[in-house]
UniProtKB/TrEMBL annotation:
Belongs to the malate synthase family. PROSITE patterns: MALATE_SYNTHASE (PS00510). This is Malate synthase. The lineage of its organism: Eukaryota, Viridiplantae, Streptophyta, Embryophyta, Tracheophyta. It catalyses: glyoxylate + acetyl-CoA + H2O = (S)-malate + CoA + H(+). Keywords: Glyoxylate bypass, Glyoxysome, Peroxisome, Transferase, Tricarboxylic acid cycle. It comes from Escallonia herrerae.
Amino acid sequence: MMEFGTNGYAAPAAGRKGGAAYDVPEGVDIRGRYDAEFAKILTRDALQFVADLQREFRNHITYAMECRKEAKMRFNNGGLPGFDPATRYVREGEWICAPVPPAVANRMVEITGPTERKMVINALNSGANVFMADFEDALSPSWENLIRGHVNLKDAVDGTISFHDKARNRVYKLNDQTAKLFVRPRGWHLPEAHIFIDGEPATGCLVDFGLYFYHNFAAFRRTQGAGSGPFFYLPKMEHSREAKIWNSIFERAEKMAGIENGSIRATVLIETLPAVFQMDEILYELRDHSVGLNCGRWDYIFSYVKTFQAHPDRLIPDRVLVGMNQHFMRSYSDLLIRTCHRRGVHAMGGMAAQIPIRDDPVANEAALELVRKDKLREVRAGHDGTWAAHPGLIPAIMEVFTNNMRNSPHQIHSMKREDAANVTEEDLLQKPVGVRTMEGLRLNTRVGIQYLAAWLTGTGSVPLYHLMEDAATAEISRVQNWQWLKYGVELDGDGLGLKVNLDLFGRVVEEEMVRIEREVGQERFKKGMYREACKIFTRQCTAPMLDDFLTLDAYNRIVIHHPKGLSKL
């Protein structure tokens, strides 16, 4: 068993001397399991680079996180997010970002997924233009998942990756033509508790970025980037000061590598409500390193609830009703397109989370038609590309975009969307409309518990009810339940007239656990972590104060420290 220290993470166990160990620089302590393959990633020089980043930027990161807390207090005291008068000169200035590298001019369809080995091969071979390998919401950040993910990406960049599926007796290898690789590190708020630097857990995103960049920048620029890159996605940003830190990290990495300024390129996910008011400022801070913004719409809905957690007049309806037809969501998309194209970079659309329904052709075609309609809306609005969660969606999405893009790789110069210059703070904050139902409460509970159970057992991308779910969906489920409980909302959409309270929620949890057991089967239910997930999810939904992130609470459950000298056991 682990012993937990005062920082909430397991204190290092006293172990015997001897046995294999990682070669670490001064001030670095690795508490994850030793593995000879992992040691090829966790080299002394790579760890030194990560430690240098941590020491140089940790105070800047700490300050940015304190600013987030101040903003949260302001919103909880009745304040509203809005455009910053102090940076009007940036929003109104005539400036553009550095030209888009030819290697990523065409980004019509991007597939996303965790860094699991078979997934990496299939995604790179999928026919998509880009594969975003995810260390964030689609990955449960256990030590094994994290470092094996780096092994997989290094092999992918080197072109040597293969996977033998023994169950199917099939070997997977890369095709001659593959998608361009982007990597998404974790958000600022997540620690890496298996690596300590100067006695503190490392910042998760610096570990993700530092290890990947150090090992792959040279090969990537030669094989994928045509002399540019590597390419990244940056999540969970709330303010341009956070973009400024990333820009400085990129400059520091380029200097270390001896490559020219502006080689590294990144797309920022606009997936928090405060960030939508900072889009110009975020692009400005990253103007030498930017290749656009992305509508991270599921996290954006989560952020809307979180931002307005103390505003009972801003309760959202059933989450299935909060789509791009809502005025505040459409306004966000329109302003993002206008902002990106004005600054000369890609405006990426949102995720199509559907999974092919192989045993029901009629339902499958209906689901595909929903995807086509959503993507047609995006391309006609001016988006330059979009996301898919499953390779089976790529042909349909690619057809929609190619048919509407007039043989151009993007719409940066042809769809300026000047009409969106009139989008106001009120448009971006407009309350969503729709009803709340018992089925909405049940679905939130069922999805939240099942996702968390999978996450606790090492899976961060989970197929549920013909949708590929990641942490963002679980977060929406959690915060909506919390909001409905806190304000005792009436379920006004199904004629029942019930008010959400602890008794009702307790009954729903019991009944949905029975349903989950029936759906997954008794044996899988017993072996899984459904009861543990239920406890965590229920506690989060009923807490007096809303926790910022579900995965921060759950992270302690997957941190495993190994005694020094026993790391091979």
